[in-house]
Amino acid sequence: MRRVHCYCCESSASELWAEENGFKMVRCLNCGLLYVNPMPDEREIDRAAQTGLHQGQEKLDVSGQYGGVAKVENYIRILREIYGDDFFRGKPFKWLDIGCGYGEFMEALIREGGPQCDVRGSEPSEVKSASARQRGLKVSFLDLETVRERFDYVSLLNVYSHLPNPIETLAGVRKLLNAGGELLIETGDAANLERSDYPDKLFLPDHLSFASEEIVCRILEKIGFKIVAVTRLHHPAYRKWTAWDPVIYWMQQRLRGRLGLRRKRVYPYRDLWIRAALRAA
What we know:
By secondary structure, this protein is α/β, with parallel strands linked by helices. The chain has helices at residues 42-51, 68-83, 104-113, 126-134, 166-174, 213-222, 245-259; strands at 14-20, 23-28, 34-36, 53-55, 59-61, 94-98, 118-122, 138-140, 151-157, 177-188, 209-210, 225-234, 270-278.
């Protein structure tokens, strides 16, 4: 375990935001980033990424399983919402999906792009990468510091919050892009939430930080990207809000402390999908 500063603004001023599984998550008092402090050693983080097992007060298994056709179809819908219906068709491209898991997003890209596209995946978990390879996907674990190949697109879906130092990782990813290439990041927009607004489990220390749109965009611009578009999509794990939910949410915030009112499980939680283009030198 090691004590760390906020990776976004380098401030050491923070306040406790949550405790789970023997780990503390704090909020930076300067920029609002939520991050685990003290943080596991990098060797522990790497080992957990390979095995899917995290050791705290309880053993946490985040191996998951292949999401099947439903997850692939959901990714196709997301790709069309972000890029448009015909963005990839008839257009050869090289795409690297970092932290590709079981490869569902890769399958969606291949279905959208057709046979002329070249989609690769990098995944530290041998269980996940083996499953992807069995389905014919080109997946291995790449040392990003030594990769010489360049890509038109690089994606990191549900990866950002697991990185011990996202700035360092994203700066390395930048070097993998061709001129004019694009990065696609998917992560939660959670740093502005209170703990009571968030889903019950935080899955610490699998998650090492929770950022916001402002924080992620600031980091990307700092390391040489320009923001193309930010799309907010409802996370499939949580019920979508109805037109009345913001009113109910506000009323419950006001009343729960006074009356002990128990709120429904409704969360103002959205996934951020950020397209960022490599800025010309």
